[in-house]
Structure formats: structure tokens, C-alpha cells
Amino acid sequence: MKDASPAPVYLKDYTPFSHLVDEVHLTFQLEPAKTRVISRIRFRPNPDATAAPLRLDGEGLVLLWAKIDGNPVTPEVDEAGLTCTVPDAPFTWEAEVEINPEANTALEGLYRSSGMYCTQCEAQGFRKITYYPDRPDVMSIFTVRIEGEESVLLSNGNPVASGDGWAEWHDPWPKPAYLFALVAGNLVNHPDRFTTASGREVELNIWVRPGDEGKCAFGMEALKRSMAWDEEVYGREYDLDIFNIVAVDDFNMGAMENKGLNIFNSSCVLASPETSTDANFERIEAIIAHEYFHNWTGNRITCRDWFQLCLKEGLTVYRDAQFTSDMRSAPVKRIEDVIALRARQFREDNGPLAHPVRPASFVEINNFYTATVYEKGAELIGMLKTLVGDEAYARALDLYFSRHDGDAATIEDWLKVFEDVTGRDLSQFKRWYEHAGTPRLHVTEDYEGDRYTLTFRQETPPTPGQPEKPPRVIPIALGLLGPNGDEILPTQVLEMTEAEQSFTFDGIPSRPTPSILRGFSAPVILTRPSSNSERAFLLAHDTDPFNKWEAGRALARDGLLSMITKGAAPDDLYLDAVLTMARDDSLDPAFRALALALPSQDDLAQSLHEAGHSPDPQAIWDALETLRQARAHKLQDLAPRLYAQYQVEAPYAPDAEQSGARALANAALGLITRLDGGAQAQAQFDRADNMTQQLAALANLLQAGRGETALAAFYDQWKDDRLVIDKWFSLQVLHAAPDRAADITRALTEHPDFTPRNPNRFRATLGALAQNHAGFHHASGAGYALLAQWLKTLDPINPQTTARMCTAFETWTRYDAARQDKARDALEDLLDLDGLSRDTTEMVTRILE
Ligand code: ARG
Ligand code: ZN
């Protein structure tokens, strides 16, 4: 074990930077292994800070010279930066450093990927480019000159001038260094234009490697829709003459909102019907919107420090979800988001990595770009809107934008605009930001005379470092249904503020069925015991689409839990209810496809753990297989009918309607494959002209154990398309039988197309192993060992992606002692690696604690 753990930083220690930065001039002389960066920076003492020598961040830089006001100086250089005595007045700092983009495999700072130069500075990558106060509350105006032989030289802001081998950019909007970006490459563009509401003409470009130009049209349309939507819904206009998006193959995350120059993982922007699934299209549309929306929530108003990350991320996720709801189906989007929230955020919140939406300390900030900060952060915005109402939300946002434009703001600033607009005291609401953990909401009912009473009790289990949890304000959207299924009380929001609280409803003629937490109005776990017949009733009658889906999901889950823990047979009530639901053509096909999907293996493990069992991954896998087979029999007449009825004849479009139809038809194909051994899937594979159909067919063939020929054909067809080959890698791992998963994964890591240097490929292979629940948690421990071994290989190459993938182990204490021993061995072996990164050390240490 490591002895010296890296030191954390604390929110409570925040102090403003000693200096203000009026302007920054950067010159880049690009060369793959020896890039020179010359900086000229105007500093002046910050009147709001205590005077101190100048401390600049810098990592892995070779300082060639430095000057203050033209006079050479010799700063004191250490591993993390430099310190220099400076005049007690405004001064100009100049320095030249050398960096090596080619050797930068961590993909942070300036790096080379497939012959292009690219940057990633959030959170603290700018310090790998030059010496600078690399913190978000230091904002400045950047002018950038790029010298390089590439045909396309891009940076933030507006183009100023260019010539043979150079280009100059000026960004008039003050920004923190994490929003700096530079791209240089022999790229081609997909151009377009947008005119803003006030008449600004904006040039739009999506820049890609030659050969990818045909995959830009959808992203461009999504961008224009995002721009129009933010004007209409939030009154936010774009503020530069040009907006560039660049696609890059090697990227740690999804995308980055650099001012005027968004950089995207190519998987999150490139799309075509032949190579992208409907789900890919929906995700690309959401990420394009997300990064664009950051222009206001993130860039014009940024974060004071990294503890405030949720200020921009939670809000921007919330905004992109609103956008998707408007573009597509709001209920379907809500259900998808809650599935993801439970799978990723609840999992995190109920394990060793639990942390508040606004953490109070961190070792490595990159480890806090989490489902909690992003997705739970977005849930908090949604709750706030529910509590204050739509109209007050709109006024609060207007005030936020006018009051804080140009600021590096805090959660306190954010809550204050809501308090000022509504006169409400939000101090209790603030606990949602400060306390980790998922509240459990217990419910009891009472019906007497015509009075119906609901009593709620809230309780949040302890999380690391937070044993006690005071009660939070919880908005509980409630409806009541009468015995014949009519809604007798339309949705109203109960505001729970106490640890225990009752709500009474008079004039209720007979005992109602409550529909609690409609639309998933708060990120809590509702523990109310319910009968299967009540769930079937809600699935049939609830007017709230989320709770309708939720009832079906709970019915499926409880049946599966009984199968796993008591050896019960598949639940007939569930099978009947699912048949009734699936054949109801008045229901949106996309909704029906979601309602046909079963809880994931990991969800079931989470539920079993919650109920006090140690989950047996193989038993979970077996139960799902049994239930799927039983469903296939139950729906054997309906499935072919659905399959035929929902084939799309029109030319492919990735819209909500067509993708809903394809989702339902493919759900039907899943049922059919269970009985026909894959004949229909083979037919679909052979005639598929889009990736949604082709991939679903291939998955079914793998499932049926006859995927070999199709896999080979698929590889042959797509071997030159990296993004499709990622799917080829992951599908094989995801569909590997539990006892074969580690072997199949290992064999794939020996494939010539496998490389740990490309995060997408690594995730497609080893990340998929972590998602194959029964395979990863196989009793042999082979899954744990293989992943840990590869994380040891990846850590020296790319600490950020390594650390992120450690989350595969965050649930290790749920399982039996033998598995725990094997998981601990694997983690300790990883922790023992010489020179293990700070990123991975923090993650493994927290997981083991
Ligand atoms: N701000 C980016 C986004 O959400 C993500 C950047 C993540 N960077 C990181 N180093 N973890 O859109
Ligand atoms: Zn974001």
C-alpha cells in the first residue's frame, strides 16, 4: 500500500488570487515533439486579495526564459509551478516554454491525435501548456497566434488575421484558462450559417478529418436547433461571429465547451444512418446542445472554483434535458434519464465514492466529473423549478444572467437569485448540495371516513465523512386514482420539509390508489411496499407516464427478486400486465419499448443489496434469462405482429417517431429470437441498411449463440470505421456468457485493432467488461483481475481514463466474502503500482476505505 496519500484541497480554504489578469497574448510555434509557447500576460495586484509573490501553475514545462516588464527574471520553479517576486503595481510577464504534444498520451493540455493538434484544458490542463494562474476565477481576454504548417489553425473567439502558416484569433469575452482551446490539423469542414435573434450573422463549422465530412449534417442541424432553442426558451443569444466544432478521435470525455471552439469526442458528433444507432443520434443531439448551452451557463457565467462545478454542469444538463424533451418525447426522455440516474448516480451515492453535489474537498478534480455532480446536479435544478414554479424559475434565470454575466459564481449566488425572486428561504434546499446520499422515503397510509392521510418519513443513510443527515425539502408530486382507475386528484406537489410529515385529503369517496413521486419529482428511493395487483393497476391506469412506467418496472423487479431469492416462478401478473401494455396501440411505441426493457443486472444487484441480500450475479443472470424466455412464450403471438407493424418503410430519419418504432420492433425481435433461434435476426442482419437495425440483429444473433458469421461480416464491412469497430468490440463483450466474458475480453485485447491509447477503444472493450455484470463479477475473479491488470497498463498512459474506470469496482462490498477478497486483491495490486497516478490513487483509496 502507498504511504503518502496526496493532499486534498478544501472548499473552506478558498481565497481570491493575488493578481488580476487584464490580457493574455499567446504565440504557439507548433512542432510535434518541440512546441514553443510564448506568453505575454498583463497582471495587476488584486485589490480584493492579500499581496503575495506571483505564483503560477505549470506542469511538465521546460521554461526557456522569463521576463518582467522586459527584464529577465529567474523564478523559483518546482514540480507544480513557479514563484516570482513581482512589482507591487501592474506589470507584464513574458515567458517561453517548450512542450511535447506528441508524448502527451494523457490527453490533457496540448496533444497530438491522428496527426492533429488538439487541447483539453478543463479542469487543470492549461498548466501543461504554459505558466498561468490556472483557476476558474481568474478571467482574462485572450489573443492567440498559431504558427504551424497545418491547413487549419483554430482558437477561441473571432479570427483576426491569417497568412501562410499562421493565424491569429481574438476572444473579446473574458474567460478562465480552462476554456482555452487550440486545434491545428489538415481538416475539412461542414459549413453553415445562423442568424441570431438580434441579427448577428454567425459562421458555423464542423471540422473533421478528411473522409468524415459525410457524418456532419446531423450535428450541424442539432447545433442550429440548439441556438434557436436557447434564444426562445432562455433568451440567450450567441455572442461571437463564428462557432467551430472539431471532432477528435482520442478524447477522455464526451466533449468540451471551449469558448467558440467546442471540441468533441468524434463518437459524440459524427453520425450517419449507416454507422450510428438511433440512440447515438439522440445522444449526439443532446451533447451538441449541452456544449452549446454552456456558452451561457459555464462560459459567460463560470465557476468561482472547482467545488462549484455543478453550478455549470447540473444546470447545463438540466437545460439539455429540457431541449431533448422539446425536440422529442418528454415522457420518454424523463424515463431514460431516471434509468440512467439510478444506474449511475444512485449506485455512486450508495457506495464508497458517494460525495455531495458540491463536494467540500477533493484530491484530483477530474475524479469529480461524476453522475452526482452532473445528473443529480440537474435533478436539483428540476426540484427547484418544481418548488418555485415555472414562472418564478424563468424570472430567477433572467436575474441570474443579468446579475452574474461575466462572473465566476458560486452555488450561494445561484440560490440567492431564487431567494430574491421568490422571497423564499432556500437554506434547507441547500442541503441537497451539501449532503451526499440518496434519501429513502417511507410512506404509510390511512383511510377513515372520507379522509385519506399519507405520512412520509425521510431517512438518508450515512455516506463517507457524513454520518448524520438532516431532513431535506422534498417535492413530492402526487395524484390519486379511484377504484375504477379514474384520477380523483390530479397532480399536486406536496412539500415535505420535516423528517416525518402527514398530508390529509378530505372528501375522498373510497380508498384511493396513490401515484407518488410523479415524474420522479425528487431523486429519492421510495420504499413503499405495494402489491403486485396495485402495480398492475397503476401500469394500466396511471395518467402520469413516468409512474405508469415505474409501476411496470417495479412489477418486473419484484418478480425477479422473488425468482432470485425464493426460487419463485415468473410472475403471472407481470406477464399478463406486460402483454396488455405491449399490445395497447394507443401507447407510444417508444414508451412500450422502454416498458418492455427489464431492469439491468446491476440494478437488481442494487435492489438486492438494499433489501439486505448479498447479490449472486449468476443467479441474477439466470433469473433474467428465465423471465425473458417466459415473456417470449407469453408474447409469442403478439411479437411477430409488433415486429411487422413497426417496420419503418420511409427513408431513415433519426427522429423520435421512427426511432420509437424501431425500438419497439427490435424489442419484438428480442422476443422472437428466444423462440426461433435467430432466424428472424439473421434476416434483419442481411437486409439492414442502417446501424440501428444491423446492430440489434447482431446482438440478437450473439444472444442466440449464432453470431460468428455475422460478426465476421460486420468486421469486414466496417474495419475502416473506428467508431463502428468500437461497437464490434463492445458487443462481443456485453453478450459474452458469464463464464466466458473475461476470456473473450482478453482475446479482444490481443486483436490488432485494440489499443489502450484510444479511450473509446479501451472503454469499448474493458468498459464493456465492467458492464457485463455476471461476467465481471464471475466467482473466478477473472473479471476483476483482467480489468485491474489493464488499468495498471493504462495508468501511466492516461491517468484520467484509468481513474474513471476504477468505478467498475465501486460496488465491491455488496458481494460475498470470496468475491470481496478477489476484488480487494485486484485493487491492492493496482494500488501497488510504482508511480500510480494521483487520479487513480485517490479513486482506489476511496473505494477501499
Ligand atoms: N465540461 C465538459 C462538459 O461537461 C466536460 C469536461 C470534462 N473534463 C474533465 N477533465 N473531466 O461538457
Ligand atoms: Zn458540461
Topology:
Blueprint: E1 9-10, E2 19-29, E3 35-45, E4 54-57, E5 62-68, E6 71-72, E7 76-78, E8 81-84, E9 91-99, E10 109-113, E11 116-120, E12 140-147, E13 152-155, E14 158-163, E15 166-175, E16 182-185, E17 188-195, E18 201-208, H1 217-234, E19 242-248, E20 255-256, E21 261-265, H2 278-293, E22 302-303, H3 309-327, H4 330-349, E23 361-362, H5 371-388, H6 390-404, E24 408-409, H7 411-422, H8 431-434, E25 440-448, E26 451-459, E27 474-481, E28 487-496, E29 500-505, E30 513-516, E31 525-526, H9 532-541, H10 545-566, H11 572-582, H12 589-596, H13 601-610, H14 617-634, H15 638-645, H16 656-676, H17 679-687, H18 691-703, H19 708-718, H20 722-734, H21 741-749, H22 759-771, H23 773-776, H24 782-794, H25 799-805, H26 817-831, H27 838-848
Parallel strand pairs: 2-12, 18-19, 19-21, 22-24, 25-31
Antiparallel strand pairs: 1-23, 2-3, 3-9, 4-8, 5-6, 5-9, 7-8, 10-11, 11-16, 12-15, 13-16, 14-15, 17-18, 20-21, 25-26, 26-29, 27-28, 27-30
The structure holds arginine and zinc ion (ZN).
Arginine (ARG) binds next to strand 20 and helix 2.
Protein name: Aminopeptidase N
Domain Peptidase M1 alanyl aminopeptidase C-terminal: 533-849
Keywords: Aminopeptidase, Hydrolase, Metal-binding, Metalloprotease, Protease, Zinc
